[in-house]
Amino acid sequence: IQTHFGDLxxxxxxxxxxxxxxxxxxxxxxxxxxxxFSELMADIFGADNGVGVRSAVGMMLPGNIPVExxxxxxxH
Length: 76
Hints:
- By secondary structure, the protein is α+β, with helices and mostly antiparallel strands.
- It has helices spanning about 1-5, 30-50, and strands spanning about 10-20, 55-60, 65-75.
- The model has no long low-confidence stretch (mean pLDDT about 95).
């Protein structure tokens, strides 16, 4: 986030998060995996601005990476 936006103070709030978890079809705990990112955003931006709409899905990810996050932020 800092690499793309520079100063974190430019971010007003988290709008939307899509968490993609590399998993097998029998794994159903995708939201628990993505909770770590959601909790981090709440810690950084506060409970009001750090929690947005969220989806968590399981799929096969390229390069066998464990998790990919797509996030949309509102800027000041």
